[in-house]
Amino acid sequence: MKRGKSKADAPKKADSKLSVKKGPERASKKPRKSKADKDPNKPKRPPSAFFVFMEEFRKSFKEKNPNNKSVSVVGKAGGDKWKSLSEAEKAPYVAKAAKFKTEYTKKIAAYNTNQSGGGSNAAGDEDESDKSKSEVNDDEEDEEGNEEEEEDDE
Questions:
Q1: Where is the stretch described as Disordered (predicted)?
Q2: With contact defined as beta carbons under 8 Å apart, do 114 and 133 qualify?
Q3: Handedness of CA 82, 85, 87, 93 (dihedral sign)
Q4: Cα–Cα distance between 116 and 126 in angstroms, integer?
Q5: What per-residue confidence (pLDDT) applies to 132?
Q6: How confident is the model at residue 7, as a pLDDT?
Q7: Per the count of CB atoms within 10 A, which of 64, 74, 117, 149 is most buried?
Q8: What DSSP designation does 69 have?
Q9: Are the C-beta atoms of residues 77 and 130 closer than 8 Å to each other?
């Protein structure tokens, strides 16, 4: 029994799209710009109402399902629960998220004023971090945040 040539027996052709360009063709490409380094002192963005809800939901879900190791199952269950909540049930999470957002706006405003330093070259200063100034301001903001929380509790 004769059989025809299989695909494995056929000579392989180099795919021109996948070949590595050498010489002057490669030199004509512009070098890629790397992303600017993130400033470790920049305040993190506040969580949305859904993420505030998920913090609480994860704890209760783990208590009910201690053997579950899958992150995706928790996320799907949390998403389904969030969709089923009414606007009234979502209200406390929306309120917490709004509170976090106001705190964030205060922190980012302080961060931006520290970065600009009152100079005319504000954009250039944002790339460099000045730890000593921001650490002092973070401590002050933490104290102010605690006082605000105590006032809200009363």
A1: 1-49, 61-89, 110-154
A2: yes
A3: negative
A4: 7
A5: 47
A6: 58
A7: 74
A8: -
A9: no
Count CB neighbours of 65 within 10 A.
Answer: 13
Give the total residue count for the chain. 154
Question: What's the confidence (pLDDT) of residue 1?
Answer: 58
- Average pLDDT per 10 consecutive residues for the chain, totaling 154 residues: 59 59 59 80 94 95 91 95 96 96 96 76 44 50 50 48
Residues in contact with 55: Cβ distance below 8 Å, sequence separation at least 6, in sequence order: 47
The whole-number pLDDT of residue 17 equals 63
Q: Which two tokens stand for residue 101?
A: 């957002």
CA distances, 131 to each of 89, 109, 123 (Å): 41, 16, 17
**∠ CA(83), CA(85), CA(91), 5° rounding?**
115
Token representation of residue 7: 């695909």
Give dist(CA 98, CA 96) in Å, integer. 5
Q: Is the CA virtual torsion 8, 9, 13, 14 positive or negative?
A: positive
Dihedral sign for Cα atoms in the order 100, 102, 105, 109: negative
Amino acid at 56: E
What pLDDT score was predicted for residue 59? 93
